[in-house]
Amino acid sequence: MTYDVITMGRVGVDMYPLQVGVGLEDVETFTKHLGGSPTNVAVATARYGRSTAVISRTGLDPFGRFVHAALREYGVDDRFVTEVPGLKTPVTFCEIFPPDHFPIYFYRFLRSPDLEIHDYELDLAEIRQARAFWATVTGLCREPSRHATLAALQARSRQEITILDLDYRAQFWSSPENATRWVGEALKHATIAIGTVDECEIAVGEREPARAAKALLARGVELAVVKLGAVGLFAAHTAGTIEVPALKVDVVNALGTGDAFGGALCHGLLAGWDTPRALRFAAAAGAYVAARRECSGAMPTAAEVTRLLDANR
Length: 313
What we know:
35% of the residues lie in helices and 22% in strands. It is α/β, with parallel strands linked by helices. It has one domain: UDP-N-acetylmuramoyl-L-alanine:D-glutamate ligase (3-Layer(aba) Sandwich), CATH 3.40.1190. The strands form 2 sheets. Strands 1, 4, 5, 6, 9, 10, 11, 12, 13 and 14 form a 10-stranded mixed β-sheet that branches. The chain has a 4-stranded mixed β-sheet with strand order 3-2-7-8. α6 packs across α7 and α8 (257-270) packs antiparallel against α9 (275-290). The radius of gyration is 18 Å and the shape is globular.
C-alpha cells in the first residue's frame, strides 16, 4: 500500500496529571497516554481516515508494548517501530497551569531509543511513495537519528508534501548553533516548514513572523507557517501571505495543539484544499485539542473540527 502520511521521530509515553494548577511535587495521580510529537501527528491524521505509519523505536519493555498497542488502537501502522534492547521507552511528564503555562519534563536517560534510528533500517521506497512525509528537528539532535532523518528527507527529492517540523527542544542539543546548522541542512529537502517564533529564530535567525516566513521561503520551502500561540498563525507561500486568527476556546492543555494542527494540515493538503482553507481547518483542530486535557486521545474527527469552525463563524 501507499501511505497517505508517514511520520518519523519521537515516540513515548506521556503522563498527564489529574490535578490542575499544581507542580509535579504535589500531583497524586496521572493518566498514561501515547506521546511524541510526530507520533501524535500520525494519530491526528488517522482520525480523518488517512492511512498513516510512524518510523521510530522503543525500548523492549512494558511501555514499548503499550506504544505498539496504542498505535494499533488509533489505526496507525506500527511496522516501522522497532525495539532497542537495553534501552527504556521514554516517559514525559507535564504540569498543567491553564491558560498558557505547561512545563514539560522529559525522562529520556543518556540514550533514547527513538534517536537510535539507523539509515539502513529505513524503507526508503515507502518514504518516497508516501503522499506526505513529516520529520522533526528533534530527530537531528544526535546520531544515528540525524543521518537517518536526512536520508529520509533526501529520498523524497523535495516532492510534495515533505514537512519539517521545527520542533526545537533545547535540552536535546549541545548548543543552539549546532541546531541551526543541522536545521539548515534539513530545510534543503523540505517543501513545508512549521514552527513557533522561537523555533524560527533557531532555524533562520528571525523572530518577527513575516521576516521569519520570508527567510524560510528563501531556504527553498514552498510554504512557511509561523505559529503564534493564542494569536493564531502567519504563513507565507509563493502566492502571498495568510493570517489566521486563533479560535476562542477555554484552554485546558495546549501541549497537543501543534500535533493536532499538523495532522489536520496534512489532511487538508492531501484533500486538495487551497492553502487558506487547509490552514484554517488545521488551526481549528489545534484549538479543539487545546480545550482538552490529553493529546493523542483527543485528536478530533473532521466533523468535530467542522462543528467548531461553524460555531466560531
